[in-house]
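Justification of computing resources. Each target in the renewal requires a structure prediction run like the one illustrated here; the chain below, 81 residues long, is used simply to show the kind of job we budget for.
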Amino acid sequence: MTVDLDGPEPLYEQIATVLAARIANGVYPPRRRIPSEADIVSEFGVSRPTARAAIQRLVERGLVVTVRGKGSFVVDSPPQT
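Resulting structure tokens:
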């Protein structure tokens, strides 16, 4: 899945939506790490601040928790959307 660079929705929001769908589909199972900021930068061709904002959006949605020095992990029971 790609992001729409010219669309009205912010890139970080589009990336967060893609990652949230992967969490919902089990691509990233509970208690397992999601891609790092560097991996998101590489996959989607965005800046590190955009990748960071996408992960922060997932934290705000209650889908992931970030552990300093370890990465971001899917929560045990993601909220149903």
